[in-house]
Amino acid sequence: MAQPRSCAHCCIKIENLSVEFGGDAVVNNVNLHINCAELVALIGPNGAGKTSLLRAIINEIPYRGRMIFQIEGRPQPHPRIGYVPQKLSIDPDSPMSVLDLVAMSISARPIWLGVGRPLRAKAEAVLASVSAAHLVHRKLGELSGGELQRVLLAIAMAPAPNLLLLDEPVSNIDPKGLALFYETVSDLRRRHDVAVIMVTHDLAGIAPHADTIVLMNRTVLATGLPRDILADPQLVRTLGPGPWHVSGTASMPRAGETLSHD
Amino acid sequence: MEYCLPFEWVRYDFMKNALLAACLVTPLFALLGTMVISNRMAFFSDVLGHSALTGIAIGVLLGLMNPLSAMIAFAILIAIAFTIFKNITRTSPDTVLGVFMAVTVALGVVILSRGGGFAKYTVYLIGDILAVTPAQLKSLLLLFAIVVCYWFVAGNAMALLCVNSSLARSRGLPVVLIDVSFAALLAVVVAFSVRLLGILIINSLLILPAAAARNVATSMRSYTAWAIVISVASGIIGLLFSYYLGTSSGATIVLCAAAWYCGTAIWSYARRNIQHHGR
Predict the structure, then answer these.
(1) B165 or B87, greater pLDDT
(2) Alpha-carbon dihedral of residues B228, B230, B236, B237, nearest 10 degrees?
(3) By percentage, how much of chain A surpasses pLDDT 70?
(4) How far apart are CA B198 and CA B205, in angstroms?
């Protein structure tokens, strides 16, 4: 299912990236090389610095090291990065509608004055790209986990970024929404050749879709094809015994099973 | 004005000025309140109001005739200090705000009560919108214009920041700048309005209209519109009630806004139950 279609002209290099919180290196000398259209699954125990790595990539927290975006053979100092947060900090009774959120992400027009018809049509088109056009008038607080993640994905993809970051997107999604979400991500990746880093605990679900799995605990412990990482004894040492722990062969765990330790 | 509104109160200049002040200050508070609630800053804005006591005290110590500039400067200081603190630590901000509030109230009362002279400052506790001066009205108009401009420039950014600050950052928004500038703007408006509305109730006027609007709003536009309508209506109705009842204007306006909140809460509860039964 995973088909790397890298063009060999676009890539993202992360070199010796470290993040410190109060003298404690939560991310330590991480090196990653990601090609366009590549889906990298980032796994590791809680507190492994996965989210901190993403926050460093979007320049939200200070870091040491280098990030180089090579787009069509040339360095791109200001790459577009799409980011899908794990959850929102709004209250369930928030008045913000899906249309509001999409409209203010794709237009500078003040949303408190309302959303005009042309902008509404644009927002619906953005939502349609993730099969979510029917959600346009719903309030954000009323969406299911899967619906919300698809809406956030649509926003992150408008306009198509050079790198898409997904922070534990499936932890609040039911099994039915899960399949749809993975399909949507694969579809967007195929259509836009966008590189994706997905932080996840759903190793079983992501393995058939990922090109590369990166096992991380503050630093990168192992990088490789899903079948190789699943057979790597380091996996069990780092994450503890779980559904991926299959003796000998690299058989895949059942889809939907998540890491049991958290 | 006397001809179109045949009421006794129209004859008094202080009532006309107060009405004008209410019409300026209530939409201002409604706008700020929508973001205060979305950002969960209700306690923060309360601390800003209470910090006015220390602001007044600093003004008195400096020998100022009018402590307003000291109040505004101190409120901005508190706002910026707290916002920066919030961004660099992961501690729960509630405790810190509690400490800020305790210290600013106690320090203000201690300084102002030297020699038993606190009574002359009680006007700051309950406010007096009827004493609004033409100069204050002009300043209010200026503040009104500044806040509306700010909303045009930073309204979307603030709304996205409420949704998720990392998401806002990933879209290139200057997250800390927006946070600090909104807190500072709020500090200026609150410090300026304390003399009119009173330290004890000023926060209710920020919170209630927006909270009531949340009960009925289905989009950011209706949220903003409802908050403004509820706030202005409470301001006008409350002011007139206070005239006829001979009560404090600020407190009467707050009670009107509270009535709106109760009404919309009941309406929203009833609507949800009807929808639920309809399914």
Answers:
(1) B165
(2) 180
(3) 89
(4) 10
| Yes or no, beta carbons of B223 and A95 under 8 Å apart | yes
Distance CA B42, CA B202 (A): 11
Q: Which residue has the tokens 């993040």?
A: A19
Across all residues in chain A, what is the average pLDDT?
85
> Would you call B220 and A97 a contact, using CB atoms and an 8 Å cutoff?
yes
Judging contacts by C-beta atoms under 8 Å, the chain A residues touching residue B169 are 58-60, 83
Cβ separation of A85 and B213 shorter than 8 Å?
A: no
Contacts of B86 in chain A (CB under 8 A): none
Q: What are the tens digits of pLDDT across the range A107-130?
A: 989 999 999 999 999 999 999 988
Using a CB-CB distance cutoff of 8 angstroms, which residues of chain B are in contact with residue A59? 169
- Which of A98, A112, A137, A152 is the mutation pick for testing B, counting most B CBs within 10 A? A112
